[in-house]
TrEMBL record:
<keyword id="KW-0460">Magnesium</keyword>
<feature type="binding site">
    <location>
        <position position="24"/>
    </location>
    <ligand>
        <name>[4Fe-4S] cluster</name>
    </ligand>
</feature>
<keyword id="KW-0408">Iron</keyword>
<keyword id="KW-0456">Lyase</keyword>
<keyword id="KW-0479">Metal-binding</keyword>
<keyword id="KW-0004">4Fe-4S</keyword>
<comment type="subunit">
    <text>Homodimer.</text>
</comment>
<feature type="binding site">
    <location>
        <position position="88"/>
    </location>
    <ligand>
        <name>S-adenosyl-L-methionine</name>
    </ligand>
</feature>
<keyword id="KW-0411">Iron-sulfur</keyword>
<dbReference type="InterPro" id="IPR030977">
    <property type="entry name" value="QueE_Cx14CxxC"/>
</dbReference>
<feature type="binding site">
    <location>
        <begin position="169"/>
        <end position="172"/>
    </location>
    <ligand>
        <name>S-adenosyl-L-methionine</name>
    </ligand>
</feature>
<feature type="binding site">
    <location>
        <position position="20"/>
    </location>
    <ligand>
        <name>substrate</name>
    </ligand>
</feature>
<keyword id="KW-0949">S-adenosyl-L-methionine</keyword>
<feature type="domain" description="Radical SAM core">
    <location>
        <begin position="11"/>
        <end position="206"/>
    </location>
</feature>
<keyword id="KW-0671">Queuosine biosynthesis</keyword>
<feature type="binding site">
    <location>
        <begin position="5"/>
        <end position="7"/>
    </location>
    <ligand>
        <name>substrate</name>
    </ligand>
</feature>
<feature type="binding site">
    <location>
        <position position="86"/>
    </location>
    <ligand>
        <name>substrate</name>
    </ligand>
</feature>
Amino acid sequence: MFATLQGEGAHAGRASVFCRFTGCNLWSGREEDRHKAACSFCDTDFIGTDGTGGGRFATPKDLARALSDCWQDEAGDHPGRYVVFTGGEPLLQIDDPLIEAVRAAGFEIAIESNGTIAAPSGIDWICVSPKPASVVTQRSGQELKLVFPQKALPPSLFEEWDFTHFWLQPMDGPDRVANTAAAVAYCLKNPRWRLSLQTHKLIGIP
Ligand SMILES: C[S@@+](CC[C@H](N)C(=O)[O-])C[C@H]1O[C@@H](n2cnc3c(N)ncnc32)[C@H](O)[C@@H]1O
Ligand SMILES: Nc1nc2[nH]cc(C(=O)O)c2c(=O)[nH]1
Ligand code: SF4
Ligand SMILES: [Mg+2]
């Protein structure tokens, strides 16, 4: 759990508390399993609960209190606290009592999800990022953020889905520069798609 600026998508630049759940249903998180994982390009360490601000929280209220402690608002004058639940796959763990407790603490709630599990109600901002060898059940929300390119997942597959924003996010890794050029070229010819850069990586914040 850490305070940072949302780096991606429509809320890039927005002060946020990030809460990264451990565990994912599309990769074990272990390097030796990466080659056989449904999702093999993940840029994130989501194993364990000993990361920055990490831990196990006994009750939804305890987690909500920790989020509140993490939220930095010097003047205390901003009504909207903003939390981004990510992971790993956050929808493996988020439930109604947690949403209720976090809302009661004054947070607007966003998730970053692979979309394989339907989101419960009460989430304000749903970002779905489809992955190969998986079935996306959450086909509506605020943003569809496709890591690009993925051979099995051309952007055209998603254009009828019910999202407000459609993003291409260049796949980070050894081919990042070429992937970025390909995403730019695609957006130029398919203006419904917009480019999402991982701006936090560009400036060296978490
Ligand atoms: C680490 S995932 C966690 C949330 C969820 N499991 C998911 O896949 O959406 C957070 C975001 O990072 C994106 N991402 C993961 N690896 C990436 C990579 N190598 N390059 C660009 N984006 C990546 C995901 O697609 C997702 O939008
Ligand atoms: N700053 C920042 N913005 C992000 N947006 C989505 C992220 C994620 O890993 O889910 C992420 C992240 O890891 N850091
Ligand atoms: S689904 Fe998300 S967390 Fe899981 S391995 Fe893929 S990018 Fe990483
Ligand atoms: Mg990230």
